[in-house]
Amino acid sequence: MSGYVSRFERRQGTVEPLGEQGRTVSAAATEAVSIELRRVEQSFGQNRVLRGIDLDVPAGQFLAIVGKSGCGKSTLLRLLVGLDRPAAGSLRFADRSGNTVEANARIVFQEPRLLPWARVVDNVAVGLGQVIDKDTARVKALMALDDVQLTDKADQWPARLSGGQRQRVALARSLVSRPGLLVFDEPLGALDALTRITMQELVSRVWRELGFTAVLVTHDVSEAVHLADRVIVLDGGKVALDLEIPTEHPRRHGDPDLAVVERRLLDAILG
Amino acid sequence: MTAYDVASDRPRQRRSWVLPALPARRIRLEWLLPYAVPIVLVLVWQLFSSLGWISTRIMPAPTDVAAAFVEQLLSGALLHNVAVSGARALAGLIVGGTIGLLLGITNGVSKLSEQLTDTSLQMLRTIPHLAMIPLVILWFGIGEESKLFLTSLGVLFPVYLNTFHGVRNVDRELIEMGRIYGMSGWTLFRKVILPGALPSIFVGLRYALGIMWLTLIVSESIAASSGIGHMANQAREFMMTDVVVLSLLIYAALGKLADVIARALERNALSWNPVYQK
Ligand SMILES: Nc1ncnc2c1ncn2[C@@H]1O[C@H](COP(=O)(O)OP(=O)(O)O)[C@@H](O)[C@H]1O
Ligand SMILES: [Mg+2]
Predict the structure, then answer these.
(1) Does residue A127 fall inside a structural domain?
(2) Which DSSP state fits A118?
C-alpha cells in the first residue's frame, strides 16, 4: 500500500489507512480469486490457438500476458471471463481459503464499449448487472466513478468525453460490482502516450486499493513490466516464459532493474 | 484533470468567438436573405396579376388566394377538410408504421422470421402502391378503407426497411458488452438494440411522412368525398383556381408541420448523439 493516498484523504489533509473513510464497504466486498488452468486448449477449426496452457495465478496477483499479435492472448482472456468455453482442459477459480468459487470476473476491452445513449453514471450502473433500485444503483455508480476520478462527468453523454475519460468510465463500469477478477485486453492501446501513463497509474492504484486479481494483456512490454507482479510470454499456444517482477509498487518509469526485465522479455518475444 | 477537459470545451469556445465578430445588423440580414427570392417572386406575381398580365384562370393573384383562405376558414370548410385529411394521414401512419416497425424489429432480431418474410416483403415493395388505386377502389370503393389501405401500405415499407437495417446494424461489440453484464431478451432489446436502431428508425419515419402525404393527396383527388384533395378537385371543376392553389399551400404547410414535429421528436430522442448537441 506504500505511497497511495486517496483523493478523499488528500482533500482532508490526513493520511489514514485505507477503508477508514467510507470505502470499507466497497473494498470489503472484493474477494480476489486465484486461477488454476490445466492443459487448457482452444482451437478455431484447424487453427489450434492454445495448445495446453498450465497456469496458476494466486489471488490478488497482477499478471501481465505479452506475445506476438495473433498468439491467442484475447482467446485466453475470453476463457477466463467465461465468454467462451475451452475445447479441452480445466479452469478453476478459488477464494483465499482454497474453496472453488464462481469468479465475479469482468473484462475491459481496448474500446470502451459505452452505450452512447446512456449518461456516464448510467453506463457505470450497467456493470451492476442485476436489477436493483435506481437510487442504490446511482450511489454505487458514483462511488465507482470516484474510484476513477470522474464524478464530475457523471451526467454527461459519453460522446462528450475524451478517449481517456471514456476508458475510465469503462473501468468504473467493471469496478462497480467489485469483481474478484478483472481482465484487461489491451485497454490502453488506443490512447495517446501521455494519457496512457495517467491511465497506467490509475489502473495500478485501483488494483492496489481494491485488491482484485488482475490479468492484463498488452502489446507494450514496458507497460507490462511497469504494472505487473509477473509477466508471461505466450508463444506457439503455450507459456514460453514466466517471470516474477519483485520490484515494489508503485514503480517509477525508467527504473534500471525494470529495464533489464524488459530487455529479457523483448528477447523472448522476438526470439 | 485539465488535460481531459480540452476536447469537451472546444465546440462551445468556437461558437463564442465566431458570433460576436459579426455586427448585429448583418446577422439579421443573413436571416432574411434566404427569404428574399420568394418574397420578391410573390410581389412580382401580385404586380403582374394586378396589371392583368396573368389570367386568373391560370394563376390567381396572391390576394385572391388569401381571400379564398379567409372565406374557406370562415365557412368552416377548411378546418373540416384539414381535420379529415389529418386524421387519415395519422391513421395511415399509425397502422402502416406499427406494422413496419414490428416487422422490422422481428426480422432484425430473428433470422428465422427474416427468412420467412423478408423476400415476400421485398417483392411486394416493388409494386408501386399508387398503381393499386383501381384495384383498391374495386375492393373498398371510395370509403375511408381505401385511403387507410393505401397510406398504410405506402408508409409500411420505408419504416420496415429502415427499422430492419437499424436493428441489424447495432454495434456487435455493444451487444456483447450487454451480454457480459448479464443483459438478455427484453432488457438487451430495450437498453441496447432499440436505442441503437433509433437513428435509422427516424430516417424511416421521415421518409414515411413524405410518402404518407403524397399517397393521401393522390388518393383524395381520385377517390374521396372530403379532405383537402377533394376540396382541390372540386374547385377544379368550378374553375376556382384560388382554392386549388390554396389546397396546394395547405398540403405544403401540413407536410412541413409533420416534418418539424418529426425533427423535434428526433432531436429529443437522440439528444445523446453529438449531431444533435448544439
Ligand atoms: N472467433 C474466432 N474464430 C476464428 N478464429 C479466431 C477467432 N478468434 C480468434 N481467432 C484466431 O485465433 C488466433 C488468436 O487470436 P487472438 O486471441 O485474438 O490473438 P491476440 O493474441 O492478438 O489477442 C488468431 O489467429 C485469430 O485469427
Ligand atoms: Mg487481442
Answers:
(1) yes
(2) S
Beta strand pairing status for A62-66 and A230-235? parallel
Which helix H or strand E contains B262, and what residues bound it? helix B241-269
Q: Which of A91-100, A227-236, B13-22 shows the lowest mean pLDDT across its residues?
A: B13-22
Question: Sheet containing A230-235: which strands, arranged edge to edge?
Answer: A105-108, A181-185, A213-217, A62-66, A230-235, A238-244
Number of domains in chain A: 1
ipTM for this prediction = 0.81
- Helix, strand, or coil (residue B205): helix
Grid cell of B38 as nine digits: 420568394
- Does residue A117 form part of some domain? yes
Which domains does chain B show, CATH number per domain?
A: 62-276 (1.10.3720.10)
In a domain, A9, yes or no: no
pLDDT in tens, B25-75: 666 778 888 888 989 999 999 999 989 888 878 889 999 999 999 999 999
pTM: 0.80
Strand (E) or helix (H) holding B90: helix B77-109
Angle between the N-to-C axes of helices B241-269 and B62-75, in degrees from 0 to 180, rounded to the nearest 10: 80
Task: Count the Cβ atoms, other than its own, within 10 Å of residue B24.
Answer: 8
Q: How many residues does chain B have?
A: 278
- Identify residue A138 by its one-letter amino acid code: R
CA dist., res. B198 & res. B108, Å (int): 13
Q: Is the CB of residue B192 less than 8 Å away from at least one CB of chain A?
A: yes
CA distance linking residue A96 with residue A114, whole number of Å = 33
- Residue B78 backbone phi and psi in degrees, to 5: -60, -50
Cell numbers found for residue B252? 405544403
Nearest CA to ligand 1 atom 9: A75
Answer yes or no: is the C-beta of A119 below 6 A from any ligand 1 atom. no
Q: Taking a C-beta distance cutoff of 8 angstroms, is the pair A216, A184 a contact?
A: yes
Test the A interface: residue of B5, B169, B172, B177 with most A CBs within 10 Å: B177
Residue A62's domain comprises: 27-270
- Examine residue A57 and state whether it is found in any structural domain, yes or no: yes
Q: Which of B1, B177, B274 sits opposite A159 (nearest CB)?
A: B274
3-state secondary structure of A64: strand
> How many residues appear in chain A?
271
Q: What is the pLDDT of residues B33-46, one digit of tens each?
A: 888 898 999 999 99
